[in-house]
Design brief:
By secondary structure, this protein is α/β, with parallel strands linked by helices. The chain contains 26 helices and twelve strands.
Length: 723
């Protein structure tokens, strides 16, 4: 209700003007009686007098007053929880104003229709009327509080589980210019965005929005709202198993709640105090009479009480002695338990530090390796495009293979580390399993032919066409298993089988089996083969190559999707991998996704791009790759100079390295977005464990290109921002 204070003021001004024309006006009289009954919470009487006021207006042709009184009657019914009666009166108000000049009262009626429908749980209808109220305010050029209605509209969308549309509406509010009237609405919008991101399990984005809500709340000093935000941040850290931070914010939440409670209790109601003083005099008289009777009874029982007291003291003395001895024993046990707890906490902290150090080490190593790898892959690509000699071509192809191998190796290490650190999110989208398996078979036909293998695909026709799940991770699992089967099999058979294991209501369980007639796995290696860097034996690694991480990733991804992988194998006869996964059945038809057309060189020709990169080799490689497509490239090696340059010079695009000396790429992007919200900014990064695409986009970047660059992906990403 607080968001429509401006409309209420507008209503009161209009109403008072119309009601004070005549001191003896019947509308003013009935309105005074209605207000008096409202103050006494006699809603039935208030409604009756308001109805009499409406009848008076209708008889005397006072249409605008009738509309205002009808709105008031609707609000009375709404406060009683009689939403159907309230809606009838609100709709009547809107109908009356259809023949009058549009005003803020009509907007208020539309708003209350939305509020009443929200209370009934009809969020779609509520959304329609919030939109109508918002449009009318814009028509009346009342723009200061339009965001308040936008916020109510977004709340209705959220309650209707239309999270994407709700998030879009909340974001539009946060992007409005700051002014005193919008600060509280911005705080609420950032808080709701954080709740939506938490519900969608996008925790990194959620904490950014909660921090924003906290930052804006400092300007309004809204303590109840701050308490809610702090509690949400505590729950975020708890979900991410950072219990120290979770406890810290939870403690702050309780401190705020206690402070607010003390403020509430400190407000003494003067009327209640006066009433208490009057009653106190009467109570004192009654109390004196009661005391005289009690004294008489006390005297009669005093001797009995004395005897009982002596008996009780004796019993309590014995109990105290027993409790004293038990206390000594309990203190000794507690001391021992505290020592053991300290040891356990120290061991836990050491384990957490070791795990964190391992993750940070792998992240740092993989990140640092990507920069020289970008140079290797980039220079190799440039040399291959410069028509090398035939005798050089073989060496360059070998160099390209080695670079791609190292890139794959680093990506697999990072993938395992992400799964272990619970930073991998599982998607739930519609996909066609049959098409997915056929596409995988087509992509691996060349590998099957190279090893002279018969590659067979068997798909159960009873499997539903449209399933809900994570097709990317499923593809990664099946590709790894088939790659292994084709690699370790020569002149043999590889079969991929998919069957409908069971179907209940809207859930289907699919059974997968990958069978090969290859070299097989020794019995003593059947368990260790799923461990990192394990391939059965050193001889196998030398002969067939590979990183030894594929099956580790497969096992972890299957467990992440709720399944379990099983392996049967015999040396010289082959191996069989099996697993089952559950999928929701999508009864709606799949959308046909048109294939994206590849980029053309004309899209890129003569475009101007600012490259912000501090590594000289990466500067040279990226410039060369851009100039090969006739793109004009200008280079800046730090964020501060780039921000100043963009204030005076325009470019078609900015390529921003994330890790820069001085201010980093994300900070530079935030500063640029303060004065330039249109120029595309693409992040260049060797993404580590602590970075992800959503986090980088939240700073104002439009897309992300990962180092080392894959040339076609590099050009395609750039081209999609140019017509």
């Amino acid at each position: 209700m607080k968001y429509c204070l401006f409309i209420v003021v507008c209503f009161l001004n209009s109403f008072l003007y119309s009601q004070t024309k005549k001191n003896t006006d019947s509308v003013a009289y009935y309105n005074k009686l209605a207000n008096s009954n409202l103050d006494s919470k006699k809603y039935g009487q208030a409604a009756a007098y308001t109805q009499k006021s409406i009848s008076f207006c209708e008889v005397h042709g006072q249409k605008e007053n009738a509309a205002n009184q009808t709105l008031k009657l609707g609000k009375i019914f709404y406060n009683q929880g009689k939403f159907e009666e309230a809606l009838k009166n609100f709709h009547k108000t809107v109908s009356l104003y259809d023949s009058l000049k549009p005003s803020c009262i009509k907007a208020l009626a539309l708003y209350y229709i939305g509020v009443a429908n929200t209370a009934k749980g009809d969020y779609k209808t509520a959304d329609v009327y919030y939109t109508k109220a918002q449009n009318l305010l814009k028509e009346l050029n009342i723009t200061d509080h339009v965001e308040a209605l936008s916020y109510q509209k977004a709340l209705a969308q959220k309650k209707n589980n239309d999270l994407a549309l709700a998030a879009k509406t909340f974001k539009s509010i946060t992007q409005k210019p700051n002014n005193p009237g919008i600060i509280r609405t911005k705080v609420d919008s950032y808080y709701q965005l954080g709740l939506i991101e938490t519900q969608l399990q996008r925790n990194d984005s959620a904490i950014i929005y909660f921090d924003k809500a906290l930052e804006y709340n400092e300007k309004s000093n809204d303590l109840p709202k701050k308490s809610k935000i702090v509690l949400a941040i505590s729950q975020y850290y708890k979900a991410n198993k950072n219990y120290d931070m979770a406890y810290s914010f939870l403690d702050e939440h309780y401190q705020l709640e206690n402070y607010l409670l003390r403020l509430k209790n400190a407000k003494v109601d003067l009327n209640e105090f006066e009433k208490f003083k009057k009653n106190q005099s009467l109570n004192n008289t009654i109390k004196r009479e009661s005391e005289e009777k009690i004294q008489l009874k006390t005297y009669r029982y005093s001797k009995l009480v004395s005897i009982l007291a002596i008996a009780l003291i004796s019993i309590l003395s014995l109990l105290s002695l027993a409790l004293y001895k038990n206390n000594i024993i309990r203190n000794q046990n507690n001391l021992l338990l505290r020592e053991k707890n300290k040891e356990l906490i120290l061991a836990k902290n050491k384990a957490e530090k070791a795990s964190k150090a391992r993750s940070e080490f792998l992240s740092t190593v993989s990140h640092e390796l990507r920069t020289p790898l970008n140079a290797i892959n980039g220079i190799t690509h440039i040399l291959l495009e410069d028509n090398p000699k035939k005798k050089q071509l073989k060496y360059l192809e070998s160099l390209k293979f080695s670079g791609n191998y190292l890139t794959t190796f680093i990506n697999e290490i990072l993938e395992i580390n992400k799964i272990d650190s619970t930073k991998v999110e599982v998607e739930t989208i519609s996909f066609n399993l049959k098409e997915l398996l056929f596409n995988i078979q087509s992509s691996l036909k060349e590998l099957a032919t190279a090893n002279k293998n018969y590659f067979n695909l068997e798909i159960d026709k009873s499997i539903p066409d449209s399933l809900m799940g994570d097709p990317t991770k499923l593809s990664q699992i099946i590709l790894n298993l088939i790659n292994n089967a084709l690699k370790f099999t020569q002149n043999g058979h590889v079969s991929v089988i998919a069957k409908l294991y069971s179907q209940e209501d809207d859930t289907a369980t699919i059974y997968f089996e990958i069978v090969d007639t290859g070299i097989g796995i020794p019995e003593d290696k059947l368990q260790t083969v799923f461990e990192s860097f394990s391939q059965g034996s050193i001889e196998v690694n030398r002969k067939y190559g590979g990183t030894g991480l594929g099956l580790t990733i497969v096992k972890k991804l299957i467990e992440l999707l709720g399944g379990e992988i099983k392996l049967k194998s015999e040396v010289g006869k082959g191996s069989t991998f099996t697993f089952k996964l559950n999928f929701k059945i999508n009864n709606e038809p799949l959308e046909v996704v048109e294939e994206v057309k590849p980029y053309s060189d004309t899209q890129l020709k003569h475009k101007s791009i600012l490259l912000i990169e501090d590594n000289k080799i990466n500067q040279m490689i990226t410039r060369k790759m851009l100039e090969n497509k006739n793109i004009n490239c200008e280079i800046i090696d730090n964020g501060e100079d780039a921000v100043e340059l963009l204030k005076v010079k325009r470019f078609d695009m900015v390529l921003m390295d994330v890790h820069l000396p001085g201010i980093n790429g994300t900070t530079a992007t935030k500063l640029i977005r303060e004065f330039d919200k249109t120029t595309p900014i693409i992040a260049l990064t060797a993404i580590s464990l602590d970075e992800n695409r959503d986090m980088l986009l939240s700073f104002g970047m439009d897309d992300v290109i990962t180092k080392p660059f894959v040339p076609d992906e590099f050009y395609t990403t750039i081209a999609k921002f140019f017509d």
